[in-house]
User: What shape does this take?
Amino acid sequence: MSWAGFKKKLDRTGTKFLQTVGSIEKTVDKEFEEEERRFKSLEAKSEKLHKEAKGYLDSLRAITSAQSRIAETIEHFYEDSTDDTLAGKKYKDAIDRLEQDCREYLDDPYRQTVTEPIGRFCAYFPDINEAIKKRDKKLLDYDSQRAKVRKLVDKPSDDANKLPRAEQAANEAREIYESLNTQLVNELPRLIDLRVPYFNPTFEALVKIQLRFCQESYESLNSLQEYFADHDQVDNKVEAVLQKMRDLAICGMG
Amino acid sequence: MSWKGTTKAFGRLPQRIATKTGLRTETKDLRFDDIQTRFTEMTKQTEKLHDDAKKFRDGVSNMLNHQANFADLLVELYNPITSEEASDGVVTRRTKTPAQAMKATEEYAKLMSEVRDTILAELDSIDRRIIMPATEFLDVIKLIKKTVTKREHKKVDYDRYQNSVKKLKDKKDKSLSEEKQLHKYEDQLERATQEYDHYNELLKKELPLFFEYRVEFIEPIFECFYHMQLRIYGLLFEQFEQLAELGYFDFESDIIDGFDKKIVDAREQLEDITLFKRSKQNKKQDESSRKQSSIRESARTGSSGQVPTYSKDHIEEDDEPPAYTPTPVRAQPPPPPPVSRKPKPVRYVVALYDYDATADGDLSFRKDDKIELIKRTPDVNDWWTGKLNGVTGVFPGNYVAEL
Assistant: This one.
């Protein structure tokens, strides 16, 4: 930090302290504060949205890769048995196709229409926060200059030039603060209002991607129905086989 | 290990070492080895199935949660953003979210939480019907492994007694005690042979049976998994179809094209917000004043760099890293580069902003990097070709200033 920057910081810390103890008056702009709170709420929600969007893609990938590995294993299980390899083979083909489709038609569109746009929106927030911080600092400067003027009015100095100079400084500080404040008060609502037009295309694209994903998965799996028996008896079957295995003499050594 | 077990393990040790070092020969049963390889492979496969089924289950439950949370957040975002402690007397300008959009998000959130609850409630059948049986199957495998180990031990015994008997038999002039010893070894050899044969034959007979059962076992599991998958995707599909019935979404257009068309307006308006640029512009000013000696300010920065009030055109052309959509722009091949009027050996440009490659063939650089210009077009909104640190690639022309 530069020397000037350090000194400014020190002065502002002093002003802040004097404000808390009440010896310097604090300017309050309710309108700004309201907008700031709304902005903070937008920021928090958008960032959470970004996180959920990323998590969604990750879980989709986890699902598709787990199911393709399962298909592989199942095919392997069938490999050395003579009958009924068809279902395993057909199933593996279908899952492989889905996996490939996902890579081609899901990953990129999702990134381009969902995660990146939301991320880009969130990338604006640091700028705003910087502007808010700057506004707060300039406000402190203004408050402190104004307090100096007041002091000079209450206790006129011997130097007649002091008061006009302080007034001039206070005016300048006010101008700087006000221009920043007005900009924020005008533009924060604009940003907040833009959230719906901005997120809406993402919303639509997301729904389209999701629909496509489950439709394709459903339809391609559904076309394999004929290879699969009804699964009502499944539980008993599994239990029966496991029992047969346990009955083998090679399992009796425990 | 029991005391007995320890003694046995100890007794087998010399034989193991001897076979390892190749001093003594080991009985080989190729058919058994074959079966055992298959058995090991199967164990691995089953473990994999077990783990992947878990991953699948967790993936589905994460997906359902993420999509429901996303939908809820969207509803929150579409609802008017207010601060909790709304102060009276302050008139805030708020644009209401179009009723249709609001309805669509609410419907979306409702359907997503419904489908989450429905599927999550059924998801434990993956546990019950796939993961648990696979665990039990692995337990069976563990039992069989014990038998395999036992056979292995018996084989070591068999080999070592055979060895001892052979050694003594080969010896001429046996002492009395050696004769006795031989008898003892022969007894032991006989027992070891029996035991080894027993386990060896048993495994050779029953492991193939077990392999057959395994197919019987995997079939219902497979069917079950298939039906579960079908059900999950079916339920999801149903919900999204319901959502489509709202008529709010345009399912005709391509996903990316539709998105690109719709986002343009909002993106432009967002870029109009001067708050975002102010900081960047200031930074640029600082930067350029610091580096004035080395960088001659280009006409572009000079024209608007210091002017606090700017028109929209200036902003878009000059101050903000311009919004660009890589794909559509790149789709049109850039016009042929004009012949350079002043043919200089090497020309350089300086990066005004950071640029990260968004596609293969893009040149990434950081602000203030000096890039060798290989090919430029008259249009700054075009893609130019440059070279940096030995890498050649294209980049948006409006990200750099010419020296």
Chain B has two domains: 3-244, 345-403. The first helix of chain B runs from residue 3 to 20.
